[in-house]
UniProtKB/TrEMBL annotation:
<comment type="similarity">
    <text>Belongs to the peptidase M48 family.</text>
</comment>
<keyword id="KW-0479">Metal-binding</keyword>
<keyword id="KW-0482">Metalloprotease</keyword>
<dbReference type="GO" id="GO:0004222">
    <property type="term" value="F:metalloendopeptidase activity"/>
</dbReference>
<dbReference type="GO" id="GO:0016020">
    <property type="term" value="C:membrane"/>
</dbReference>
<keyword id="KW-0378">Hydrolase</keyword>
<keyword id="KW-0732">Signal</keyword>
<dbReference type="Pfam" id="PF01435">
    <property type="entry name" value="Peptidase_M48"/>
</dbReference>
<keyword id="KW-0862">Zinc</keyword>
<dbReference type="InterPro" id="IPR001915">
    <property type="entry name" value="Peptidase_M48"/>
</dbReference>
<feature type="domain" description="Peptidase M48">
    <location>
        <begin position="61"/>
        <end position="246"/>
    </location>
</feature>
<feature type="signal peptide">
    <location>
        <begin position="1"/>
        <end position="18"/>
    </location>
</feature>
<dbReference type="GO" id="GO:0051603">
    <property type="term" value="P:proteolysis involved in protein catabolic process"/>
</dbReference>
<keyword id="KW-0645">Protease</keyword>
<protein>
    <submittedName>
        <fullName>Peptidase</fullName>
    </submittedName>
</protein>
<dbReference type="GO" id="GO:0046872">
    <property type="term" value="F:metal ion binding"/>
</dbReference>
<dbReference type="InterPro" id="IPR051156">
    <property type="entry name" value="Mito/Outer_Membr_Metalloprot"/>
</dbReference>
Length: 267
């Protein structure tokens, strides 16, 4: 983790940030660190998850998730279609995530709200949407702009002088990974991942209208405590309305995919 903090510190001092255009036409500030470093951070975060959370041994569920992931990732641009690593975690939370470097984590709790393969595809495509829309790159760039490399480097050096400083550095290291990769995305990114993911699932032959049903299930299952995903959107009903409107325009894409033989049969 110390090496990771040091690489972030150096990067924030030396990298020249760039701008790019997101899949929805939004201008993004990116490039604070290289894609290789992003992939490394994704791998470290994923390794941390695998070390701390039990993995599901249910062969049927693992095959089901892998089938949906493979169908969705086949529709990605050339060069990013293969090599995705998938882990199904035994955890009751209805959650999933995707990280740079081709890492996808799914919690078994997602099956409570994603009740068929199309709804599971909506979840997975949404999370992959964050990756292909460069949201992690954008968040790293933003975070390093607000928290200078000098501060990170100072924490690293301070870790050599006493237990208290060492603990502070470990906390900072965990915060760096959590804050950049694992905390909820902002509302703009969430809406953008909805757009990208719903289009991606339609291209893969999953019914884009089922994204609406997924979010209705999420709201129904939330009871008094909203799921983590819902905490980043001011109005879940508005989100559902947007998904419903887009589904209509994506039905032609879905039907073309089915006619072309993209008819997933995952479960």
């Amino acid at each position: 983790m110390k090496r990771l903090i040091l690489s972030l510190a150096v990067a924030s001092l030396t990298a020249a940030c760039a701008t790019t255009t997101s899949p929805t036409g939004r201008t993004q500030a990116v490039g604070a660190i290289s894609q290789q470093q992003l992939d490394q951070m994704g791998a470290e975060a994923f390794a941390e998850y695998k070390a701390k959370l039990p993995r599901s041994t249910n062969a049927t569920q693992n095959a089901y998730v892998s089938c949906v992931v493979n169908a969705v990732t086949r529709e990605l641009p050339a060069g990013s279609q293969t090599g995705w690593e998938v882990a199904l975690f035994s955890n009751d939370s209805p959650n999933a995530f995707a990280l740079p470097g081709g890492k996808i984590g799914v919690y078994t709790g997602i099956f409570k709200v994603a009740r068929n393969q199309d709804q599971l595809a909506a979840v997975i495509a949404h999370e992959i949407g964050h990756v292909i829309a460069h949201h992690h790159d954008e968040r790293v760039t933003r975070q390093l702009g607000a928290q200078t490399g000098l501060g990170l480097l100072g924490a690293l050096i301070g870790s050599q002088y006493g237990t208290g400083a060492q603990q502070a550095t470990q906390q900072l290291g965990g915060a760096a990974v959590q804050g950049i990769f694992l905390l909820p995305n902002n509302r703009v990114q969430e809406s953008e991942a909805d757009v990208v993911g719903q289009r991606l699932m339609a291209q893969a032959g999953f019914n884009p209208g089922q994204a609406v049903n997924l979010w209705e299930n999420m709201i129904s299952a939330s009871s008094s405590r909203a799921p983590e995903w819902l905490s980043t959107h001011p109005d879940p009903q508005a989100r559902i309305a947007e998904l419903r409107a887009r589904a209509g325009s994506l039905m032609a894409t879905y039907e073309q995919a089915r006619a072309a033989g993209r008819t997933p049969k995952c479960g």
